[in-house]
């Protein structure tokens, strides 16, 4: 999914801010993926310093979805790296938003997928199969709901209950 004029977050804010179905994430996420602009239906993982469920999600057909990973804002390890970014690209995910860290930033930047995160950390996460899939997660002032729609670009992240055009 490419960034087109009708999916720019600033334009979406101009058209929809203040409506009940529209949310704007607080700033703080940095762009790491090869695509700065991406959008799609939301799928979620709650992953407290354990990326087992992140891998399982990205192994599935993405069908243009965006995986929202709530790592609790932890900066103690990375939840996504080059292998998982490449897996997401291969399986048709539009992007990944990580409330936490990624690693292998240079390699992630060469993948044709959007990746936003709070920062980088070289340490990989644990593998305890802990966490939850496709549950509501809340961070950056937004409740990310599976099936709702996420739009991201260099200006930020917005979500909507319905697709926006």
From TrEMBL:
What this protein is reported to do is described as: Catalyzes the aldol cleavage of 4-hydroxy-4-methyl-2-oxoglutarate (HMG) into 2 molecules of pyruvate. Also contains a secondary oxaloacetate (OAA) decarboxylase activity due to the common pyruvate enolate transition state formed following C-C bond cleavage in the retro-aldol and decarboxylation reactions.
- Would you tell me the protein name for this molecule? 4-hydroxy-4-methyl-2-oxoglutarate aldolase
Q: What class of enzyme is it?
A: lyase
Family label: Belongs to the class II aldolase/RraA-like family.
Record bears the keyword Ligase:
no
Q: Locate the residues binding substrate.
A: 81-84, 103
InterPro entries hit by this protein = RraA, RraA/RraA-like, RraA/RraA-like_sf
The GO biological-process annotations, alphabetized, read as: regulation of RNA metabolic process
Q: How does it assemble?
A: Homotrimer.
Q: Which residues bind Mg(2+)?
A: 104
Q: Which organism is it from?
A: Corallococcus carmarthensis
Report if keyword Magnesium is assigned: yes
Identify the keywords attached in UniProt to this record, alphabetized: Lyase, Magnesium, Metal-binding
């Amino acid at each position: 999914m490419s960034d087109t004029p009708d999916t720019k977050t600033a334009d979406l804010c101009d058209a929809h801010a203040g409506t009940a179905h529209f949310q704007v994430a607080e700033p703080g996420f940095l762009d790491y993926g090869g695509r700065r602009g991406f959008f799609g239906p939301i799928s979620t993982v709650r992953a407290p310093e354990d990326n087992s469920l992140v891998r399982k999600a990205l192994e599935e057909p993405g069908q243009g979805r965006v995986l929202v990973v709530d790592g609790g804002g932890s900066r103690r390890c990375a939840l996504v790296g080059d292998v998982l970014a490449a897996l997401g690209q291969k399986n048709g995910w539009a992007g990944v938003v990580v409330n936490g860290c990624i690693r292998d930033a240079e390699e992630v930047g060469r993948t044709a997928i959007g990746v936003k995160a709070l920062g980088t950390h070289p340490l990989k996460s644990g593998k305890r199969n802990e966490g939850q899939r496709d549950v509501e997660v809340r961070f950056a002032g937004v409740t990310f709901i599976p099936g709702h729609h996420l739009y991201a670009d260099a200006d930020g992240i917005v979500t909507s209950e319905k697709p926006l055009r």
